[in-house]
Amino acid sequence: MQNFPTLEDIKAAHQRIQPYIHRTPILSSSAINELAECKVFFKCENFQKVGAFKARGAANAVVKLTEEQKKNGVATHSSGNHAAALARAATVAGIKSYIVMPSSAPEIKKKAVKSYGGEIIECEPNLMARETTLNAVVEKTGATFIPPYDYFDVIEGQATCALEMWDEGIDFHTIMAPVGGGGLLGGTALTTKYNSPTTKVIGAEPEGADDAFRSFQSKKLIPMQGPNTIADGLLTSLGILNFEIILEYVDDILTVNDEEIIAAMRLIYERMKIVIEPSCAVPLAALLKNKEHFKDQNVGIILSGGNVDLGKLPF
């Protein structure tokens, strides 16, 4: 059993990353509350630096590096928000970043990484190519590998999002987060159970990438093969460390189909007038699909990010 980050570790991480992040607002919508038959509090990480919660974990991992480690910079493989978050955190810290990205990564994501000062190394769009290319980059440059989610410094950083939610003095009955690699859900579960052991923590996942759901049900880690969902931020297989945290601290994982995700995404655009990416809408879709479980509760939902290609909206 790993020594999971403690509440003190998470509070220290929150202090550490202050210069790197926004404290994002919590918004609500009376129309959505009425529809959901409960009070929903949306933690808007779509307003976070780099447009996603990933800014937190990347910043914490970079700030915790030793001076010796910083000399050669940092490296990772990512097609999305972690790539931009790490590039930005490295630039703010005055060090180099090497980002291995699949050739199929959206142009908008590549532009973001470049604008934050990251050096992109392209590879074939499969996990083996990503890992092989990353290993070659690390060997050549001596950079420190910062994994996107299966890494305690990253999980500790992601856990600070829920810490801010609990600081607001809302008595949450349930807190929901999307789950891909599991860094956000794992971190959210730790913070929430430390603050309020009776509050339920629920993960939400697309049916087309439901490895966390299946792993949670069977109590053994089942890697995702050939994920297929509009929620492109949740295609990753669940991380090993995160799986341990989730088994211990998460109460349930719910799944929704792409149609339900698109409907929830559209609802947030129309009612809240804010931009979110499809992955963000998964918890609201799960809540609306299972309304009877949440009736009259205070439900916190983490809106994980807002990096969406506006030319390819699904409605």
Would you tell me which CATH topology of the largest domain applies? Rossmann fold
Q: What is the CATH top level name of the largest domain?
A: Alpha Beta
Q: Largest sheet at a glance?
A: 6 strands, mixed
> What's the total count of β strands?
10
Total of domains? 2
- The value of Rg in angstroms is 18 Å
SSE order = HEHEHHEHEHEHEHHEHEHHEHHE
* Weakly predicted, low-confidence segments: none
Mean pLDDT: 95
Strand order of the largest sheet: 1-2-10-7-8-9
The proportion of residues forming helix, as a percent range, comes to 40-55%
Shape: globular
Keywords: Magnesium, Pyridoxal phosphate
Cofactor: pyridoxal 5'-phosphate; Mn(2+); Ca(2+); Mg(2+)
Domain Tryptophan synthase beta chain-like PALP: 17-305
Protein name: Pyridoxal-phosphate dependent enzyme
Topology:
Blueprint: H1 7-16, E1 26-27, H2 30-36, E2 39-44, H3 54-63, H4 67-70, E3 74-77, H5 81-92, E4 97-102, H6 107-115, E5 119-123, H7 127-141, E6 144-145, H8 152-158, H9 160-167, E7 174-178, H10 183-195, E8 200-206, H11 211-218, H12 240-249, E9 252-256, H13 258-272, H14 278-289, E10 298-303
Parallel strand pairs: 2-10, 3-4, 3-6, 4-5, 7-8, 7-10, 8-9
Antiparallel strand pairs: 1-2
Helix pairs in contact: 3-5, 3-8, 5-6, 8-10, 9-10, 10-12, 13-14
